[in-house]
Amino acid sequence: MLAFVLTNFTEDLWAILWSYYPRALGRPNSEMSTTIGILISLVLAVMAWRNKRWFKFISEVATEVSQVTWPTRAETRAATIVVVVLTIICSIILAIMDLFWSNVTDWLYSL
């Protein structure tokens, strides 16, 4: 994940810098930015692996994530339906309130 993020960041940064300094940097290409992103992520991974505090933290995070009970597909679908229905209901209520207050303010300004 870190390599993916750093690869895209490096590619975007290279494109931005290339727009200001085209001759000094050369044309941006995805192979170079992919290589730079992967190398940076490998260096950071090795640094995190060797640091005892970071390694302990990452190990604890992995342990906690392994203990999480993830919802099933049916539970996720049901929760999504509830969210969509409640969003529609709230939108309708807000639209009615907006229409009401719009009419009230129009009436007050017409006085």
Number of helices: 5
Radius of gyration, in Å, reads 26 Å
pLDDT < 50 runs, ≥5 residues = none
Q: How far from one another are the termini? A: 62 Å
Average pLDDT level? 84
Sheet-strand content, in percent, reads: under 5%
Reconstruct the topology from this structure.
Blueprint: H1 2-20, H2 22-25, H3 30-50, H4 52-66, H5 73-110
Helix pairs in contact: 1-3
Summarize the structure.
The chain has 111 residues and is an all-alpha fold.
Structure description:
The model has no long low-confidence stretch (mean pLDDT 84). The chain has 111 residues and is mainly α. It is 87% helix and 0% strand. The protein has two domains: 2-66; 70-111. It is flat and about 70 Å long. It contains five helices and no strands.
Which terms would index this structure?
5 helices, mainly alpha, 111 residues
